[in-house]
Amino acid sequence: MYVIEVVPLTIIPRNQTQILSYFFNQALEIGSVVEVDLNRRKINAIVIGSDTIRNSKLNYKKGVNFELKKISRVLSSEPQVGNWQLKIAAYMANYYYAPLGLSLKTVLPPFFMKKGYDFKILDLEQTLKNKFGSENNSKFIYANLKNHSLDYIDEIQKKILNGKQIFLMVAENTAAKYFLEKYAFLMPEFVSSKLNNKKTYELWQNVQSRKSKLIIGTRIGLFLPFQNLGLIIVDDESNEAYKSDMTPRYKGNDIVHEIARLHGAETIYSAVFPRLETYHEKDEQRAGKNQVTLVNMIDEIKAGNFSIFSRDFKDLLIESHSGSRKVILYIPRRGYANFILCQNCNQPILCPNCNVSLVLHQSNASVLICHHCNYSQSKPKQCSFCDSYNLKPHGVGIEKVEDEIKKFFKFQNLDLPKLFRLDSDSLKTDDEEIKVINSFINSESGIILSTQIIFSYKYLIRSDIIGIINADTLINIPDFRAEESLFRDLFTLNSMADRVIIQTHNPEQVAIKLAASGQIKSFFEGELENRKVFSYPPFSVLTKITYRHQDSLRARREVVVLANKLTTIIKYEPDLKDMEIIGPNPGFISKERGYYIWNIILKFKKIANQTEAEKIKARNKLLRAVPAGWLIDQDPRSII
Question: I want to staple 486 with a disulfide (CB 3.0 to 4.6 A). Which of 137, 177, 213, 475 is the partner?
Fold first, then answer.
């Protein structure tokens, strides 16, 4: 008889044992697949070890009573999972404090163990032994939006000539399409979670047989069975889409380092604007020679201009009309108005499920919509609190800008130029977006109004003029990354046009002022100094612990109890002396979809005499105190 250790491909709470033991009448190879009984369910599991009953008994303490269950059946006696896949899954589970079985499911292909998809994984162990742990070369490249494909072509062709495989990782499928077209002569393969099982299976076969040399796609491509990976390119490395929204909440742009180390591959990181974590002083670059105008909208009001367009921007609109120029109008908000406020009692109209204001949409009929839970209602005639009829919309959304553009040209007795609109309310599919983008690109002149979607097409679109309607709306979030995000958006937009107008009510705001002049180095120096003072990344590592419950009192009570428990553990654990607890605090949106949200932030300061492995071990020891059902997010997008 043998004791078989397995990893069940299911969710086991992280504070419980992730590797389970069963018995079987013969030894099984590492990577083989079995079916086990777990909590009265039949679950697929991956074998990670076998030993005789006699040897295994020596590993158990005397007096411990337990009964091993027998493996239900063997699904595959031949290994279906490679050691390299187990290593990646173990790293993700350890660093992101995620269930090991779920991490392993993330690494495995979607066709795994499905009928008709027999895939024999090759043993890369000997190859990886020669490479594992070796230092890989890494560099950062500032993206040139005019000819971005040229940024990588030399390195790609050099690796292909040397018989190496290259993975070009993109944050979004729109970027993948751009590179697939530009590098079509290199016969690249495309990988994405949107591929069906048949196409994914063919891709895995091509990659493992070394038939595929250049693979372009999203973060799921990191787990392909590369045989001779020489280079990983992380395009647009500061894009938030690299962060997974599902457990394990890994960052594709961060685990690249571990994947590259495993394969002994080189890495290239690229972006128009890098993250603070990847910024290097030697890489300083300015926005270019484009003309940027910063307009103080308070001065506009003082001068009697109450329009959402400044006088400078109005002049540019007229000039662009006569000169057949292309204009991009960037509006951060969807809808017509951000909220409706009662002028009598100052109460906004809130969503009944979320603690947020309903957004006014007027494309077809006046309707109020919650952008978090999709609740909608018709626009009321009077306030539900004081019965006043004096309800007024506030804020500027893309629909209002569209109305104001039409009114402006009508008032000027000018023909309305071609208007294009790019937002998720008017366009529902990627194909519809591409159709609008191509129409704008192929037109001699016109105005395109866009929300954040415009950044997905930054490699395709270039215009004569960009107008940023209200830059202030990009920073009204109490998060330590808010200024970095604002600077990135403004800097990227500055790189997409020859002439830029930034409208703001606060022209002295540091990020806005430096972005307008393209001073990356000055911004980073100031931001890094602020982060250092308050011990925020890159000078610390953050973990966000979130609790949600429909009962507001219970939500608060549970999070206070856990915060006190964590504080006590930290107090008596020497390895956690550099750990700081922030909170508990209600979420920035304190109620969403009927659930009240509370957060605890763990801030682990980086110290010179502590290795990453020691730091992760100490943090994970603390996180074992977190009950099942809580959300743990390592390196979160925000702390609110």
Answer: 475
